[in-house]
Amino acid sequence: MESGCRRRHKGEVEDSVKRASVTLHEVAAAAGVSIATASRALTGKDRVSAQTAEHVAAVAERLGYRVNLIGRGLRAGTGATIGVVVPVISNPFYGELIHRLEDHLQQRGFDLVIADSHGDVERERDRLRMLVERRVEGVFVVPSDAELSFDAVADTATRVPLVQLDRRVIDLPADFVGVDNHRGIELAIAHLTAAGATRLVLVSGNDVTSVGRERREAFENTVRARALPRKENIFGEYLLRFGEEAARTLLSRGPLPDAIVAGDDLVAAGVIAALKRALVHVPSDVQVTGFDGTMLADVCEPRLTTVVQPFDELAREAVEALTRRMDQPDAPYVLSRVAPSLRVAESTSADH
Predict the structure, then answer these.
(1) Which helix (H) or strand (E) holds 112?
(2) What is the dihedral of CA 176, 182, 183, 188, to 10 degrees?
(3) Is the Cβ–Cβ distance between 345 and 297 less than 8 Å?
(4) Is residue 322 located within the same domain as residue 173?
(5) How far apart are CA 352 and CA 345, in angstroms?
(6) Cystine design at 265: which of 118, 123, 125, 296 (Cβ 3.0–4.6 Å)?
(7) Any idea what the CATH number is for the domain that residue 10 is in?
(8) Residues 220, 288 within the same domain
């Protein structure tokens, strides 16, 4: 009798484990609907008929699907989860991007779980593994390294639908959505040269990331095409302190360039802060441009001329790419480049 009880208990445990492993993808396939529809049906979101909601709920119950609850602040019954791994969550760019991603995901019945890799490849690998183990339905990743992130991102893409966002791993066959970095740098340089600047210096991230590579290549190609004097550019990390250090380096070299093209708004803010401490006036002594269009551009003094990334469009296209990959695992990969714009302010023009 005792051993029989034990056998029944073991069987119940095995059945429970089996049922707990059911994913939303399997529920959607069994119900004959898309993952987004299944998620909305199970979370009470709009745009799903009562008949569809009842059908999906019945299939989910039969398969033993249980809503996956992970991440601080998630409420019971809020639906399936999507993970996102970013390199520096404190960067205002990623804060704004995550906010827009969350908006678009919630419209489709998904919740967002955020992980920070701190720009470290090993931490990135751990964060991706954690998300997969906790059965997220899809993953957005901003790779911390254009080459060294290859294995972890490629492995994750074989286990769960994945979209690279903002940055990408070189030669990795996976969906990608980001801004047109070449166009952004061209816009900044065209604005500066139209006002008479000829001596330009790029202060930007290094070649560790795809964004760093693309913005450097765009700058060098545009300077060459416009036959502008070649200057020694400065490369480092997309951090405030790097911008400050780069400004001090430029000050130590002697005469300043006409303009400093910063690789992002954080770097530009650091450059301007260090120049002000050295009593260098922006824009009359040197002009400064940023890249991203974050809140930093508005709180800088003077306000920052910057290349504006269309956050909402980036998020919308990324969510569309991910849900497409969920519904069509064998579909051709998406490589989407969204066009930026330039917002002119006081850091390049005293008239603004």
Answers:
(1) strand 110-116
(2) 130
(3) yes
(4) yes
(5) 5
(6) 296
(7) 1.10.260.40
(8) yes
pLDDT in single tens digits along all 352 residues of the chain: 334 433 333 344 334 334 445 677 778 788 888 777 777 777 665 567 778 878 888 888 888 775 543 333 333 334 589 999 999 998 999 999 999 999 999 988 899 999 999 999 999 999 999 999 988 999 999 999 999 999 999 999 999 999 999 999 999 999 999 999 999 999 999 999 998 999 999 999 999 999 999 999 999 999 999 999 999 999 999 999 999 999 999 999 989 999 999 999 999 999 999 999 999 999 999 999 999 999 999 999 999 999 999 999 999 999 999 999 998 888 999 999 999 999 999 999 866 5
Q: What are phi and psi of 306, to 5 degrees?
A: -150, 155
Residues 306 and 203 in one domain: yes
- What length is written for the chain? 352
- Tracing tokens 């002594």 back to the chain, one arrives at 285
Q: How far apart (Å, rounded) are the C-alpha atoms in residues 257 and 286? A: 7
Q: Which residues contact 159 (CB under 8 A, 6 or more apart)?
A: 132
Q: pTM (2 decimals)? A: 0.80
Beta strands 259-262 and 200-205 are parallel
Contact of 159 with 136, CB cutoff 8 Å: no
Q: Are the beta carbons of 326 and 318 closer than 8 angstroms?
A: no
Domain count, the chain: 3
User: Given the DSSP bridges, would you call strands 80-86 and 110-116 parallel, antiparallel or unpaired?
Assistant: parallel
Residue matched to tokens 């765009």: 218
340 cis-preceded (ω within 30 degrees of 0): no
- The residues pairing with 175 across neighbouring beta strands, listed in sequence order, are 163
Token code pair at residue 17: 């484990």
- Distance from C-alpha of 180 to C-alpha of 173, rounded to nearest angstrom: 19
